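[job 4471] stage=fold_predict status=RUNNING
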Amino acid sequence: MLLRTFGWSFGITVLGLAAAAYFWGADGFGVVLILSILEISLSFDNAVINATILKRMTPFWQRIFLTVGVLIAVFGMRLVFPLLVVALTAHIGPQTVIQLALDSTKTYGGMNYAQHLDAAHPAIAAFGGMFLLMIFLDFILGEKEVRWLNWIEAPLEKVGKLDQLSVVVSLIVLMLSARFFAQGGAETVLLAGVAGLTTYLAVSGLSNLFEDAGEEDAGEDGEDAASAEDPDTAAARSAAPARKSAVLVAGKAAFFLFLYLEVLDASFSFDGVVGAFAISQDIFQITLGLGIGALYIRSLTVYLVRQGTLDDYVYLEHGAHYAIGALALILMVSIRYTIPEIVTGLIGVAFIGLALFSSMLRNRRLAAEEAEQTPVSSGSAVS
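[job 4471] inference complete, writing structure tokens
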């Protein structure tokens, strides 16, 4: 299982590092290796969130996520998209942007490519921050089968019954961020934030719409099939508990879930792409290093799904969402203040680690309770 899931990641890592050593020597090899490790270490929460979504998709769409999704993540989000951001925010033509990206000594308006990308950070942070904040709010305000921090989650679930509360809270956070963090660029922050919020609502809404339609079709097909079964088989089937997660989405629903995953990945990667220029000014080194890291995150996502890790450690999803909420707020604050990536990474790792530890304690407690009840049940059966 491990080799089958991570085989491509291992192979491309070897080829990528070999290419880095060939084209850029020992220094380039080191830069690519550092960027890869940083991308992996800072994205565990991304993998957990991806897994919660990917487990709802059919094996076909899981393979699409690992193949086409990787190409989009590596070349689209970590190479092409930053070029588009610089072109749009700095009002520079595509050809000039490419020239700036290829030559770190070339400037336009007194700034090189890295500086232009850094200048676009407020818009990037507002877009990604709003998208991630909506993910966190919809989770923390929604009803959950299992609660981790009951003293927080129970009252928030009651408040979350107010319609569209997550949108209202997100807009309030956006307005406060534009007012107190945007320095002379409040309009840009507001527009980018609204774009992030709109993107979330559109992609998530369409995915839920088609997923619900698919489940209704599956339910109708199941009823037709049940009517053709013999009474004993139909009765046994109806006695089994209904599980929504048993219906894997495909078609249009899976397509929009796939888009949702790609935008989510982009929201996680924006800050990393900007921060990578502190290590290297070469966009190809950055793309290769971050791309190798992104491939491992995707392999880890599939591994979590296939191993059923989220079902075994039920609080991992909670920890990942808390990490996403923290990242969203950090992105909004970073519109004005510089926050080291190591801080963001440690917060994410801390939430994931605490959630994993809490899940293990829960599993031990449940196992102990089951062990205590088993002898009693056996004794009563004998008597």
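[job 4471] summary: Residues 231-246 have pLDDT under 50 and may be disordered.
[job 4471] exit 0
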